[in-house]
Design a protein that fits this description.
Number of helices of chain B: 0
Strand content of chain B: over 45%
Shape of chain A: globular
Helix content of chain A: under 10%
Structural class of chain B: mainly beta
Largest sheet of chain A: 6 strands, mixed
Number of strands of chain A: 9
Order of helices and strands of chain A: EEEEEEEEE
Number of helices of chain A: 0
Oligomer: heterodimer
Distance between the termini of chain A: 35 Å
Order of helices and strands of chain B: EEEEEEEEEEE
Helix content of chain B: under 10%
Chain lengths: 110, 120
Amino acid sequence: QSALTQPASVSGSPGQSITISCTGTSSDVGRNNLVSWYQQHPGKAPKLIIYESIKRPSGVSNRFSGSKSGNTASLTISGLQAEDEADYYCCSYAGSSTWVFGGGTKLTVL
Amino acid sequence: QVQLQQSGPGLVKPSQTLSLTCAISGNSVSSNSVAWNWIRQSPSRGLEWLGRTYYRSKWYNDYAVSVEGRINVNSDTSKNQFSLQLNSVTPEDTAVYYCAEGWSSAFHIWGQGTMVTVSS
């Protein structure tokens, strides 16, 4: 399995919205809605922010939203805040009880 | 509130076995609704799902193709924990290893991570 494709970096100013894409294939992202997104601050473990493509775990800000179309999933962060500066990773179920992650996107809040 | 506490050595010699344990609080390793996973992260390989164990009337395991044949993920119901064993390690296995609770095909709760270096 190849890693899912994410942009290496994105940036935005406080208050703005940004979108991070995650492109896979019909064998992973495109096969169902089992895409999840994780936020990782330096030196910390990843934190789940979106699962089943669009659902937010309890306690996650509604500024985070997910969507999916075909083989591409997207994470949108609205009303950017300084604390959102982190690395973001997508992950998809890839069939046969295996999972594949994206390469990660570094978000810089200007 | 589920919490996962990892333990294990941070240095392993090449060709030996990497062994890590993940102690669970707030849930049971025998839960019928979750799976217990191991994931690693390195600069060269990024985040990589390695394997899982879960209980659905009996125990099941699934492993990534990249480590199949070298990996075992086991549960210990008496200690409410699960473990990772990765055999015949090489420097390519140097990474931060995480345990994680999974359901709905996502990893909801993560351990704190253990940096494991493979070096003589």
